[in-house]
Protein 1
Amino acid sequence: MHVAIFGTGYVGLVSGTCLAEVGHEVTCVDVDQGKIEGLRQGIIPIYEPGLEPMVKANHAEGRLKFTTDAGEAIAGAEIIFIAVGTPPDEDGSADLQYVLAVARTIGRHLQAPAIVVDKSTVPVGTADKVRETIAGELAARGMDVVFDVVSNPEFLKEGAAVEDCMRPDRIVLGSSNPASIERLRKLYAPFNRSHDRIVVMDVRSAELTKYAANAMLATKISFMNEIARIAEAVGADVEHVRRGIGSDPRIGWHFIYPGAGYGGSCFPKDVQALARTAAQNGLDPLLLKAVEAVNERQKGHLFELVLRHYGGAAVLRGKTFAIWGLAFKPDTDDMREASSRRLLQQLWDAGAKVRAFDPEACDEARRIFGQRPDLVLCDAAEQALEGADALAVVTEWKQFRSPDFARLRQVLGDAVLFDGRNLYEPEDVEAAGIAYWAIGRGRSI
Ligand code: NAD
């Protein structure tokens, strides 16, 4: 099938590549000329495991094209995806300017019947707005082209996006039009072979489903971070508590890891946007507000531990902190809303210096922070330790899991480790003569 995808970010590029991989003819459109030029030359703008070879192979075979020319992409496309960003607006609601700009573009270029599929995370009612916008543009051109708008929220996880796209848990389709559902079933058939993963519902429910999924996951994280706080206060170890509750299948093991708070481009903005939707409909979203508030507080928690260890901010002036991990989670270079950003800023505000290493996010950090005298971005974890007084681990990359504690003891001037992801056993760290501060491990605190 011929497909056009607007937006070549994490969602658009990965979805487009996976659709091409199973044989569809895909044209990816972006307004970012540099990104499109780069992609044509095989430069992949994001880090996702497995993505680069797939993009190159499908591009070389002619099934995956890149353009800034919306008209070219829309001509001949039976299915047109919207996969552009929906960042938070000033009041926390989703900013629909990019989604509606694409809708206008579609209305200006559409010549033949097509299904417009909204993959961006958008508030309930957006499909109606997209429909009205396209219809308005078609009317302005005096055109009468049949089109439908379907909601198809995306559930891929950064860091495992290709895998999630090739083997989705579920494919949610929101539409009341059986013909549209039938076309999309055909499009997704290669991803839906072993058992039926397609869940069909009305458009509004599909739009809400995406927010409910992210809000549920964020809730689990904030819940666990709250338990971690209590554990710290009462002298319990949240890691024992986690093992004790995760074994209950009603609770499960996923998303019950306490840490330095959730970040990324989705949870923070989606929890806010859902709360906004509730408020706009006269509801007081008590739980969502608490989930967000707990997370905001938690992002500052590593620095609180730093203050507790050093007995205040005054001593931090002139200290050097090694930071392991900048991305908001492992296996991605994405630093949007990352907890590391809060910690870095707090350390800088206190007059400390930072030597940071992340396996994938150093370029992104360079782009965000530019050149500054109190930041050195390093090429290796070991290099970040040179001349450092303390180490803080902020992202749980696998390569940080088994450090040589004896070596850390030698190099860290103040022999202290702040672990924002509970990667280590307190006994192992302390046996090496290093003070260990982790999340919710009252035993060591
Ligand atoms: P992104 O910021 O990585 O990419 C968006 C892309 O859209 C950019 O390349 C931008 O240049 C392009 N764009 C903006 N306006 C355009 C236009 N008019 N025409 C063509 N391209 C345009 O965003 P993302 O992370 O891929 O997220 C896209 C949507 O998917 C968001 O709504 C997000 O909430 C949702 N989502 C994201 C994830 C994730 O893990 N990143 C997962 C599920 C859903």
Protein 2
Amino acid sequence: MSADLMAQETASKRLSDYQPYPFALETVRLDFRLDPQETEVRARLALSPRRAASALRLDGEELELLSLAIDGRSLTRDEYTVDKTGLTVHAAALPAQPFTLDTRVKIAPEANTALEGLYMSNGMYCTQCEAEGFRKITYFPDRPDVMAKFHVTIRGEAPVLLSNGDLVAQEDGFAEWVDPWPKPAYLFALVAGDLVAHSGSFTTKSGREVALNIWVRKGDEDRCAFALEALKRSMKWDEDVYGREYDLDIFNIVAVDDFNMGAMENKGLNIFNSKWVLASPETATDADYERIEGIIAHEYFHNWTGNRITCRDWFQLCLKEGLTVYRDRSFTADLRLGPVKRIEDVIALRARQFREDQGPLAHPPRPDHYREINNFYTATVYEKGAELVGMLHTLLGDAGYRAALDLYFDRHDGQACTIEDWLTVFEDASGRDLSQFKRWYTDAGTPVLRVREQFEDGTYRLDFEQDTKPTPGQPGKPPRHIPITVGLLGPNGQELVPSTVLEMTEARQSFTFEGLGARPVPSILRGFSAPVRLERDVSARELAFLLAHDTDPFNRWEAGRQLAQDALVALAQGEDADPAYIDALGALIADESADPAFRALCLRLPAEDEIAQSLHDRGVTPDPEAIHAAREALARDLAHTHEDALTALYEAMAVPGPYTPDPGPAGKRALRLAALGLLNRLDGGARATALFENATNMTESLAALGFLVQTGADEKALASFRSRWEGDRLVMDKWFIVQLAACPPERAAARAAALTEDPLFTWKTPNRFRALMAGLAGNHAGFHAKDGAAYRFYADWLLRLDPVNPQVAARMSTAFETWTRYDADRRAQMQAELERIARTEGLSRDLSEMATRLLG
Ligand code: 0A1
Ligand code: ZN
């Protein structure tokens, strides 16, 4: 091991090193005097030693310590030490009895560009403390298993002063907040600014009247109605489905423009990236509305799964995130179209999590070491974490799952828990042994599930084999406990054996079905019952049959997906594609019994990155140009073959009347736009131009703009869109992203470079930086252009952002996570960029960890 790597390994935190904090923290008193350059924070911690003679360690970064006292006595310089990461009060200076510790520190919110801790956005004060931002506000045991009651006063010039819990006193320039629920520091929040509220109320099932406010900048108040209604729906759903009630008299949501992530579940004071709150038909798309509803629900649901029951340490992050994603997905599935939601989730899982699992960044849902926890807010922790909860639900059934969750809330309310606690609850509620299931949490990698069939004398047998490739640091992979939902269909599509859950626990395992008159058609892994890659030799005819007849909507879609993928893989290698996909889609387009949203999903071709992965999985080195050409060719072929039907669909799916984001009209628009996307390849953008000029909502306007960008004839449309929306930051983000993600690949890198010169490219705002960079990285053939221009450009910008906002720079570096998939030339170029990043002096811990892991 190199000296560098050794140093990094020792800088890692390890799950096995966990030790409880040696002090109990009863209460916290915080007093803020806000000032952009010199905010003063006084903290009083009521502590009691759990063991004698232990020194007191408090985390603290970038703080100027003004004073430090214990039980009112100022400490002398030899009684404590301060270093770059915190403060230690030596054991000799500590009373053996409970004591209070007072600190006074100075911080500069205006200079905080990393957006962790207390920072400013458009003149408003705002905090982000998860995971370890609180230590940039005051000296504190900043770890999730230290929970305390917070009492907060805020003095400042802003008219609105907010924190967690209930407001107990208020006058001009002053507010006092008391949170009765013990919480870890990462759930602390403070907001101060000139804000206006869109308000409402909700009465809980036991009759508590809760005041609801969505706080925004002046001028944004007419874009809050949807979020407020979504919040009420979430509160009701959590009562109905999980029996969980809200526990304070007030629930505040604040929208902020500068935010590193989507949103944050601080107790009673959720803070949101304004992108995921503000919506109006003119500025938000159908997809935005659905996401807003889902994220509002996600943050609200955290009140129980995350806040009331939190994580013992950050290794357990998927305990709160996997479960909360599972809950928000179920909420959306219940309110909208369940099967469509499931398909969308699986598309996203494969695009983000499978991709992660197959590359150098693969890690288990519960990692056992890290250098920078911010780098572990990943698709594996969130989305795969949710899949694991879904599998537990499948294994236990509805009643068993509900019993386990009831037990979880009963047993662990008020605690900081582990994955072991979580699985024990499921074992106790069901009487089952889940020790093998636990491997899903501790092992990285996507299992490949191979299946073969046999039919003889009325007995049908499925032979399964599971295998997981080695991942970084985990060479051997023992078999996992996999729930495989299977149904068998007869020759006319009738269900011979309805959905049953087969439980696979061995490396190879067979399951038989007796008494069948003829060989059935199997429908395997219905509803995507486990996050695995299924491999099965299956004819195009059989897939077409499943696409037409499967009673499981997920597998119906999956059959079409498989046909499309096979066709694209063939075309990308210069072979002919089986016409089965194009033929089968003809019937589906015309099938009025199928939901429009479902049909729209079936018409959507796999993304180029997914095709690249598919080729890689089959042992073929992906060629980005050939993939792009293949996808274009298949789309064109589809459009040609079904031109009349698609044209009819385009007309029939127009939604008259005023816009609503409801699933019915949104599904029709999705189908209409899917048809237009194909027709656009034939009419040179004529229909898209007409739609762009007449659209009355952002869904159609943005889609039409994207289609025009695709044709290359986009100059006029881009200019007119820009002049209309110049003053709207959220819409302008869309303008940046669409012209890069959808443009002909050969233009992408140069266009991205030109856009960085645009005065609207305010790169220190995370949303704007992400829009441009994710737009480029999302253009698969453009990002992977042979000359390496996009690689260099992208790496340059990561290096520029890193000193300003390391968290976002590190997160965006995942654009390189697939580098080992490609040909030697591209690999060498990406490797060189990653090495250049890794070598850079003064690199943040965030980006440095990512560069090292990416290089493997
Ligand atoms: N817990 C939030 C996501 C979040 C995580 C980290 C952040 O800063 C590093 C901010 C937000 C959620 O799951 O919604
Ligand atoms: Zn979350």
